[in-house]
Fold:
Amino acid sequence: MKIRTGSLSKGVQAALFSAGPIFLLMWGLATLYALIPHPIPVTIAALDQLYPMMQLVVLSVPGGAIVSLPGILSGSFVLSRLADRVAWFRQKWVWTISGLIMGLAIASLSRNYIPVAFALTVTSVICATLCRHWIDWVDEDIFISPWARQN
Structure:
């Protein structure tokens, strides 16, 4: 029998606080990628927009945490309970693929705007991987004291 060790809450906290900035970064990269056939202008006026963007990233931390709270909590709870019972769900790649599937399912709602769908999918994958990072399952025998084994 395997016992879960580590902290699920550390992964959930990391995923919650990084969801907003990851989403904004991926949205910006996808938007820039859509401009690739044309030159991407880098001017002094464009550089003046960096400070408001930095403020937006700071504001995205609590905003992203609020928006992603239901998905991260429910996904990490379900996957950790499944992993307690089925060894196959203890694999890190299973959590990553689960994040990909959920991200694609949510992103399919925004069919007309590809950068948002891309940002949602990548954010879901990274958050699912972060949730799994601090958890491990070890054999039950490690927690039994040597005196209990003699009886």
User: Anything to note?
Assistant: Residues 2-145 form one domain. The mean pLDDT is 87. The chain has one domain: 2-145. Helices lie at 8-34, 44-47, 50-85, 92-107, 114-133, 146-150.
